[in-house]
Amino acid sequence: MSMTDRKLNLILFGPPAAGKGTQAKRLVADHALIQLSTGDMLRAAVASGSELGERVKLIMQRGDLVSDDIVIALIEDQINQNPDAAGFIYDGFPRTVPQAEALDAALASRGMAIDSVIRLVVDDTALMDRIKTRFAEQGRKDDNPESFAIRLGNYNKQTAPLLPYYVAQGKLAEVDGMQSIESVSTQVGDVLKMIKAAKSPQKKGFFARLFSR
Fold first, then answer.
1. Which residue ranges are recorded for the region named NMP (predicted)?
2. Would you list which residues are annotated within the binding site?
């Protein structure tokens, strides 16, 4: 089994205010994973002054959307720069089925694959109540209930088509995101244990069979 086979590749789904960021930070700290955030990668590319960064800079200056090919190139560049990482968490990408297909192809060309898509399942009404309380206490203009409702709606629309895609691959794992931070972390940790078991030579394919039931 190669080193790339042993690397973990996770997608962490969760709407705004669901605690996705908190869980991602714990995965980074506890499992030596690297979080690949689309926004962070684009900003870092521009700051680097590289040829790819200059392309990204010009696109962003025009106000155009950065193409999927460029985002994939940035992801591959980060994988190249971090050969000793235990694995990666993909944050903000993919958002559509074509993006998911492009990511699968890019990883496959490197002998890698997405191991699991961990979805934090939350109650939209409870999230709205949480935001209303936070807004009443802090009064942040960029964190008001109206704008949050739009963000939440956009998230639900974007992720809905992706769920069947990963279910068909036997890679979707759902975690109750309404529990405490510690409980959610424990559930996420359980998923990682099953992934690692599946990646062992003796138990290869176990994880896919488990989640295809």
1. 37-66
2. 17-22, 38, 43, 64-66, 92-95, 99, 134, 140, 151, 179
**Residues with catalytic annotation?**
20, 95, 134, 140, 151
Residue 37's CATH number: 3.40.50.300
pTM of the model: 0.81
Say which residues have a Cβ less than 8 Å from residue 125's Cβ, sequence separation at least 6. Answer: none
Domain that holds residue 156: 3-190
- The annotation places the binding site for AMP at 38, 43, 64-66, 92-95, 99, 140, 151
**pLDDT averaged over consecutive 10-residue blocks of the chain (213 residues)?**
70 88 91 89 88 89 85 89 91 88 93 94 90 82 81 85 93 93 94 84 51 49
| Ordered DSSP codes for 99-134 | HHHHHHHHHHTTT----EEEEEE--HHHHHHHHHHH
Residue 55 lies in a domain: yes
What H or E segment, with its residue span, contains residue 20? helix 20-31
